[in-house]
Amino acid sequence: MKAKEYNIIVEKHADGLYRFILSNIRDEDKAQDIVQDSFERLWINHEEISFEKGKSFLFKIAYNRMIDIIRKDKRLLGSSEIVEHEKDGYIDNRLELKEVLDVALNKLSKIQKSVVVLRDYEGYAYEEIAEITGLNESQVKVYIFRARQYLKKYIGQLDLVI
Question: Is 31:22 a contact under the CB 8 Å cutoff?
């Protein structure tokens, strides 16, 4: 990949990568660091990576870095402090729809949340998600199906939420 192609990847995918990471870890500083690290690794390896594979490589690096940070934070904080204090299935009627969706997404496992965000928010194909996450395509489909089933059950009927 040439420097010009690298710059195209930065322009096209920086915002989407940041949104993906931020939606999973909810810490702007950490999200910015992960995005910066990902672009740095892409540049370090730019000679070995083709332009067509740049987006997948970038998201895979960011995803792996995000998982590393989540694991590190869990070890430092202890799992008891990370647990949410909400009752399962409870939805505050004052929440807006986006907030309800965010609460529901945060109840998913990290892998389920990641694949749903990549598929439904970012519009990636199953093959691309498999490449980013290191899963096979059928595993991605199963995680997405189960996550959607959970979200449907959690949120209930849309008219009750609004």
Answer: yes
Residues 6+ positions from 50 with CB-CB distance below 8 Å: 1
Average pLDDT over residues 44-61: 89
Task: Report the alpha-carbon angle 139-144-149, nearest 5.
Answer: 130
- The 8-class DSSP code of residue 26 comes to -
Percentage of the chain surpassing pLDDT 90?
A: 33
Report the chain's mean pLDDT, rounded to a whole number. Answer: 81
Mean pLDDT, to the nearest integer, of 22-39? 89
Question: Rounded to whole angstroms, how far apart are CA atoms 13 and 73?
Answer: 26
Extract the tokens encoding 43. Answer: 């540049």
Domains belonging to the chain, first-starting first, are 1-83 (1.10.1740), 87-162 (1.10.10.10)
Separation of alpha carbons 149 and 83, rounded Å: 22
Which residue bears the tokens 């749903």? 116
Distance CA 118, CA 132 (A): 9
Residues 6 or more apart whose Cβ sits within 8 Å of residue 141: 126
The token pair that represents 41 in the structure block: 């690794």
Please enumerate in sequence order all residues whose Cβ is within 8 A of that of 30, keeping only pairs 6 or more positions apart, or say none. Answer: 21, 69
Look at residue 105 in the predicted model and tell me its pLDDT. Answer: 85
